[in-house]
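[Q] Does anyone have a clean structure-token version of this?
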Amino acid sequence: MALAAQPDPGTQHAPPHPGTPPDPPRRGALATTACMETLQVAYLHAVVAAAGCTLSQPFPDNGIDWHISHSAPGHTVDDEVTIKVQLKATYQIAPQPPGPAFPFTLDNAHLVKLARTPVAVHKILVVMLVPRSRDDWLRARHDGLDLRHCCYWTNLAGHPVTGRNRTTVRIPTTRIFDDRALCEIMNRIGAGGTP
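[A] Here you go.
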């Protein structure tokens, strides 16, 4: 005879009052920075999928996180063009930063790699602004999933190193990284231009 498991009466919780938010879930012990890396990769995958591109990860990683390729009949330099993408994330900058740009600091060795010019394959930096609390990272509804907050991109080709060990660069707030922005980047490269 099979017995149905019954809840322990001592562990049952009273239903919350209407309008009371539920208790936050008990999250894993993984470091927040590691979780931020996973979140920005999810954002990148969604953008690449919507743009109709392919995505690959170099192995081993040589200082660049991802390669994105885009095939389109309008490309004149090749039938498929590729860019290299370096992902970064921070919760130290509030969402919807005011002004035309926000500051982001890179190690000089990393900046040198991103700023090299000329190159055969262009590189961009994508910076994700993440809410400080993981409770605010996702909002799921019947009609969609909001992944918060936003990624911005920039091309640092030719950017000088100005700090002793680290250099602060400016990330334009007008360059939101989404599927349309990615397609526009790829079409400019496909026509022989820069990101």
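[Q] Thanks! Anything notable?
[A] Confidence is low (pLDDT under 50) at residues 1-13.
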